[in-house]
Design brief:
By secondary structure, the chain is an alpha+beta fold. Helix content is 48%, strand content 16%.
Amino acid sequence: MDQEGVSGAVTTEVAPVPVAGDHPWHALTPEETAEALASSDPGLSDAQVTARRARFGRNQIAEQPPTSPLVMFVRQFRDPLIYILVGAAVATLLLREYLDTAVIVTVLVVNSLVGFIQERGAERAVRALAQLVVPRARVVRDGHEQEIDSRDLVPGDMVLLEPGCRVPADLRLVRVTALEADESLLTGESAPVTKQVAPVEKDSPLADRRSMAYTGSVITSGRGRGIVVATGEDTELGAIADLIRGTPDVTTPMQQRMARFGRLIGIVVGVSALVAFVSGLAIGGSVRDMFLVAVALSVAAIPEGLPVAVTVALALGVHRMARRNAIIRRLPAVETLGSTTVIGSDKTGTLTENRMTVQEIWAAGEFHRPGAPAPAGSPLHLTLLTGVLTNEAKVYHAGGRVHTSGDPTEVALLVAAEASGMVPDELRDDYPTFAEIPFEPQRRYSASVRLVDGDHRVFVKGAPERVLRMCHQMLTPDGVAPLDRESVVKASRTLAERGLRVLAMAGRVLPAPPSSGDVSEPDGLVFFGLQGMMDPPRAGVPEAVRAAQRAGIRVIMITGDNAVTARAIAARLGIITGSSDAAESVLTGAQLATMNDERLRELVPRVAVFARMTPEEKLRVVRALQHHDEVVAVTGDGVNDAPALKSAAIGIAMGRSGTDVAREASDMVLADDNFVSITNAVEEGRVAFANVRRVSFFLISTGVATIAAILVGLWLGWPLLMLPAQLVWLNLVTNGLQDFALAFEPGDKRLLEQPPRPRQEGIISRLLWWRLALVGLVMAAGTLYMFDWSLTTTGSVAQAQTVALTTMVMFQAFHLGNSRSVRRSVFRLNPLTNPFLLISSVAALAVHIGALYAPPTQWLLRVEPIDVSAWLRIVPVALSVVVVVEVEKFIRNWRS
């Protein structure tokens, strides 16, 4: 359709220009729109532009400034364990234990630097992916066409549209010629939308407002012009940005677990210190001595190396995920993936390839796959040939790659013809164009008259029901026969039910050439066949969906695409299974709009596909899932996905096709836009959390053992088992070398076959708490035994403290192997899968032995060398922790 635009020139402002929300522009006629905005075909005058820019400002959406390095660094201190370490640093400073203070402060700084470097690097990676050039806009002003910076547009400007341009503002279309736009950025609809000038219903959803062109969408074909009705924050894009800003940040499961864990450690620290101080005074100890004991217990109870070890474990997870195409922007998101119970995935580009592809061809009563042999003159050949000759797209090969341009549907037809050995460019040259009828929404078909072997042939493609009205005959294997309309309709319905977009192909030899360069509606055509196409699933996605489901993760589709297509893709991928209730497997935005939040919460556990969703509706779905205590991961690439991305426990944006708005709202960016990478990242997230759990279990075991040993020694009236400086050495140096090794564990390959962790489960599971108590008792008893033996044998408190410290160091070395697996025997674990483990154990022992014999560390730690007889007792005593844990694992596995 080619409709003239509005006419008449307006040179001065005659009335206040309405803001975007004042009118339902899509429901007004072009004339009404022009009148309301004092606009016309010649465009605005310079005076009007100046006045309107002063009122409406520039055509741009306010961007959040990048996080400053200082704020990003300080943000690393927001952690309960960090608060406890800060308290410990203050306490040791007040006691003038400056060495302890310096070590703890060093830990704080190192931890913050690790987190800062990772987050800063991720932000740079995301910004590198989001390099979008500010588009230019072609406008008519003062009767002259000109190109301007799109940020200088104002309401009332007349904008010209052509293929490949990005719509620079919200426009009410006033003239279109076969105009189509890709609005997937806003609606999620994968197919281009055909535009029109005629108004649509006032309550039409955004995806159905064909009389409008919205900011950020791309013109795929045709030409047109439109009046700017909204700019900047007043556009639909601006409204979504405002919705994003109003969506609060979500606390991740990892942050919640660490907060609970930190509070628990804080309680243990306070209670232990109080019990030691009060009980010590009760049995006759001095206030100063008991205060020193309380400080020693506090230092023992605080796992100073834990924050750094946790950060390293998560940072290693970030590194492993990056190698599998998942860029993590915030460290806690690593573990959140491992806790995910629901993945709400966008369809286009994530589950599918984001390119239309012919899937099936029906000709002469048979279904064919693309690439099937197509002998010249056969129904299949003529079906494919029609798709080539009624086509303006291009497919060319360069540099070993296939390049395309034009409408995605027409590109698919060319690719299908090439698959059967046809060469589109040669066919177009062999059969030159005589006349054409371009596709328009009202016609629902396009036609091309070609010169073929001296004849004028018309080729037609379009909607099946429209093309059938022009046909009287059809091609069969035996030649031309009367049209069997029922069989064609049945085949078309079969293809449509499979979620395919169906086009019919027909043609005939014209008895005489058209008298002019144009041609009237063809009739008396011979029906050739049907081509059904869709945006197909990505390779590997069905397997990734099944892997997620085996891992106890429910996969759902949340898309702006239509319900029929979404259902078909979901069925292919296994998101909708044969056991699903067809009546409840798909929920549309129109249906959702009629129900309250309570009804939606009842439905979300049973719905697999949410189709035709607006940004607000996607947000409602995410919140309804969260009401059921689900840990929701949401994927998306468009601006319309950003609010849901921000509200989810983890937002996953697309790195290639995604918008910068979506990426900024996300916690993770997929470098390859592939759902398979999400499943890989979930696996790595579970490995990362398992390593955090290993590190925590290992470190806390030492703390529990030390607290128990010091309290029992106090109650027995013994001297202090270990001094504060020695406890810092134990927690930071010998422990610190080894707990990092656990962060490098490759993880159990069966992790992805286990259900997600319960949200209420802490960093340490119930099983590990029980084992921790067992290990703590064994290590405490062994340390007490060796302290008593040394004190009795040598009579030296310093020697006994050194033996007790060394015993605990040896316990740590042996317990490191216990911590590698919850259920598997240490003797069944290959040490070469984590060579850092052996290296760290040897290094910790070497550092400690060196400290026993080096004068500077002897003075700092107040330790003494120990003789061979002590070593011969320490080793078997420390080895007992392996024996006890192995017996406990055997009994537990035997019972299960």
